[in-house]
From TrEMBL:
A Pfam family of this chain: Plug
Membrane topology, as annotated: Multi-pass membrane protein
Protein name: TonB-dependent siderophore receptor
GO terms for MF: siderophore uptake transmembrane transporter activity; signaling receptor activity
GO-annotated biological processes: siderophore transport
Domain TonB-dependent receptor plug: 47-145
Keywords carried by this UniProt record: Cell outer membrane, Membrane, Receptor, TonB box, Transmembrane, Transmembrane beta strand, Transport
Domain of life: Bacteria
Keyword Transport assigned: yes
Length: 690
């Protein structure tokens, strides 16, 4: 079991520029300015024109509810499940499958292990676009789950600035500063700078965080038709007392454990330092005839330095004994270069104008990891109720293991939006991708070489001025390097997504709603199947799974004073034999966020969030081989918000999370888990300079 856990445990972790936006901290959910997305096709289509399920989490929503990290924001997204397996690592799922495609301005490589290490801070982003289903045109490799696209903040031509100070439970403090404006030539050269600083303790014993975020971007109009943008960002995380693994879920007699919410297995010397740097440049030119071309290059570097403390075993119910330590020191460096160039514009054929996108991208990445151990691990742990984090820090003198592999990907893509009539649009396209991995990962070959064409087709029929019927089909694939029982490569994972639905948009796209019926397939996923005889080397087998369900999503300003966003997902998830699989994924979820302005009191507004999910469970075995099941009952989480503009340019926002103090596991993805945060509060005071 430890070997199976250890492999993922060592994991590393374009859209066109957004219109210039005011920095005012307003509580608008689903602003009409955010109702366009190019995540699916590189065409700037409204949500109603896009033949896939798309949600947008805008900056106003992030500010209103104090959502500063990707885990918090995606926890409110329709159909997205945040699998918080440790304090500083998380998986994400959609439609039953892992999300591996995280992009910035539509560009990126799938995460090497499907894990996000550290936390992605949202200070530098204008919004998050969530496209559910396979995104084979723009993300040809990955899973048929979803694509998460982070859209960076852009400069504004006029000077605007704001600052916000947040204080909250467990001595948490955060400072955000955002300055934007023209620098020369009456706004032809403009810039933006963002910084955020956060630190504090935590409800978990010994856990604390210290985070810094910096971002800068310059834009210049090189002429009436050409724009150049360059920028960089850096995030520095220094958490201490981190979890590697989590708490045991059951005692040796099969009864579930029930530790205090604050219980942690972290040693007091454990830490997980991460530094992530991005740099990018974009050049866009508008040609005559409404054609434009855009070239983008990106660089990413993530460095991790850790000293970690894992605890294994099954405790005795009477004594609490039976837990053993497994410390490790882990360092890694992940570097990647991405480049993308495309052209888009109209094409006249058979008397009608159609929309065309043609482009290609190139990516190179490398992963270098070293894990160090100790020959003198030390004694077993006392009962966790008595463990205070003190444990002798080992000398890392045992043999090391690690990874050293390179990732390569090249794609050519093309898509056409055929305007068959004023009310019927057909989108067809394909991506031809070559993906290669060369090297080794913890003693196992990580080499693969796959080339595949992934098609996409979508049809949108306008039924009325505000309603559209749509259907789409897309494919995706992901090379895999795992070996089967016969020492042969398992082969590439393949996946597809088909959906049909109805979309509506009202009030000049200020309100958007959709309902979709979907079927997502994932074939030949490499899953652990055992160990080679006489070794602890794992072998794998390909497994198939399919999810089918229905999804409702909406967002917008319902009235002049009431905004609402949310969604419902219901699905089934079965294996090739028709049996339930991946039971840690809830089959039913509900998300809603709303704000109401009080007309009788100028500047006063209230809001709330509600997250609900159905029951989940995980199956395991006791030390004697008997089966055991751990369940997390269905639960709901309520959040409340109050905001008041108490003076000119001054606002105060109070957020209360987990109002009912629900005790729950945030994930059963692994066979260990920890309790999520209890009731907590934060107060943000913001000042707008311009």
């Amino acid at each position: 079991m430890l070997a199976a856990l250890a492999a993922p445990a060592f994991a590393a972790d374009d859209t066109a520029p957004a219109d210039a936006r005011e920095l005012d901290r307003v509580t608008v959910v689903g602003d009409a300015r955010d109702s366009q997305s190019s995540t699916a096709t590189r065409m700037n289509l409204t949500l109603r024109e896009t033949p896939q399920s798309v949600s947008v989490i805008d900056r106003a929503t992030l500010d209103a509810f104090g959502l500063t990290s990707v885990n918090q924001a995606l926890g409110l997204a329709t159909g997205i499940q945040v699998e918080q397996v440790e304090t500083d690592r998380a998986y994400f799922t959609a439609r039953g499958f892992d999300i591996t495609n995280f992009q910035t301005d539509c560009i990126g490589l799938p995460m090497p292990y499907g894990l996000v290490n550290g936390d992605i801070d949202l200070a530098i982003y204008d919004r998050i676009e969530v496209l559910r289903g396979a995104n084979g045109l723009m993300s040809s490799t990955g899973n048929p789950s979803a694509t998460i696209n982070f859209i960076r903040k852009r400069p504004t031509p006029d000077l605007q600035a704001d600052a916000a100070l947040t204080v909250g439970s467990w001595n948490n403090t955060r400072l955000d500063v955002d300055v934007s404006g023209g620098l020369a030539n009456e706004g032809a050269v403009r810039g933006r700078a963002v910084a955020a600083f956060e630190q504090g303790d935590n409800y978990l014993d010994r856990y604390s965080r210290d985070k810094q975020v910096y971002y800068g971007i310059l834009e210049a109009d090189l002429g009436e038709a050409t724009t150049l943008a360059v920028g960089a960002s850096h995030q520095r995380n220094r958490p201490e007392g981190v979890l590697w693994g989590a708490l045991p879920l059951f005692y040796s007699d099969g009864t579930p454990t029930d530790y205090d919410v604050s219980t942690s297995t972290a040693a007091d010397w454990s830490h997980w330092d991460t530094d992530t740097t991005y740099a990018f440049a974009e050049l866009q030119h508008d040609f005559a005839g409404q054609w434009q071309a855009k070239a983008t290059v990106n660089y990413q570097e993530t460095e991790e330095n850790t000293e970690l403390f894992y605890v294994s075993g099954t405790p005795d119910r009477a004594t609490g004994l039976g837990l053993s330590p497994f410390p490790s020191a882990y360092d890694s460096t992940y570097r990647a270069h991405y480049a993308d160039i495309y052209a888009s514009g109209p094409l006249t054929l058979l008397g009608r104008s159609h929309d065309v996108v043609v482009g290609g991208n190139w990516a190179r990445g490398n992963v270098r990891e070293v894990s160090r151990y100790s020959d003198d691990v030390g004694p077993d742990l006392p009962p966790l109720e008595l463990f205070d984090g003190y444990y002798p820090k080992p000398v890392w003198d045992a043999p090391s293991a690690g990874s050293d592999f390179d990732l390569e990907r090249e794609s050519l893509y093309a898509t056409v939006r055929w305007n068959l009539s004023d009310s019927v649009k057909l989108i067809t396209g394909a991506s031809r991708t070559h993906a290669q991995s060369i090297g080794d990962s913890y003693g196992v070959s990580n080499s693969s070489d796959e080339t595949k064409t992934t098609p996409f087709a979508g049809l949108v029929i306008d039924l009325a001025p505000n309603y559209s019927l749509y259907g789409s089909y897309g494919e995706i694939f992901n090379p895999q390097s795992e070996l089967d029982e016969n020492h042969q490569f398992v082969g590439a994972l393949t996946g597809s997504n088909a959906e049909v639905g109805l979309k509506g948009a009202w009030k000049d796209n200020a309100i958007n709603a959709s309902i979709a019926v979907f079927r997502a397939r994932q074939d030949n996923l490499a899953e652990f199947a055992g160990y080679y005889p006489g070794t602890f080397d794992s072998y794998y087998q390909g497994t198939n799974a399919e999810s089918r369900g229905i999804e409702f999503d909406m967002a917008g300003r319902i009235t002049d004073t009431w905004t609402l966003s949310g969604g419902i997902t219901h699905m089934q998830l079965v294996d090739e034999d028709g049996q339930n699989t991946r039971d840690y994924v809830p089959r039913d979820t509900f998300r809603v966020a709303t704000t109401v302005e009080i007309p009788q009191v100028a500047g006063l507004s209230f809001g709330g969030t509600l997250r609900w999910q159905s029951q989940i469970h995980v199956d395991d075995v006791l030390p004697d081989g008997a089966p055991v099941r751990v369940e997390q009952d269905a639960y709901a989480l309520l959040g409340l918000m109050a905001r008041y503009e108490f003076a000119d340019r001054w606002t105060a926002t109070l957020n209360l999370d987990n109002v009912t103090d629900e005790k729950y596991y945030p994930s059963l993805y692994w066979n260990q888990a920890f309790w999520a945060a209890p009731r907590n509060v934060s107060l943000t005071v913001a000042y707008r300079f311009q």
